What does this fold into?
Amino acid sequence: MPMLPVTAGIKHTKYQIFIYSLLLVASSFSLLYVKPLSLFYLGSASVLGFIYLYLAACLFGKGSPSYGMKLFGYSIFYLFLLFSALIIDTVLL
It folds into this structure.
């Protein structure tokens, strides 16, 4: 059982998820300052990040538990595609 909803409440938990989602997407763009990457990575990170933030905003705004499961499932897909884009950009482009 997740502890944050029990100790801090559902509203605070959704707020934390949204803040951490913003930080996650921002950190995916920080790689552009470390290593020069192409527009392929920038476009991939932008599209994937927009979808991630949309799902986090839906969870924060509407609060349906189904959005939590959608965000959880997409987070795994997001990381897989983001790392794949990084590998493709580094090795092939």
Remarks:
- Residues 4-25+35-91 form one domain.
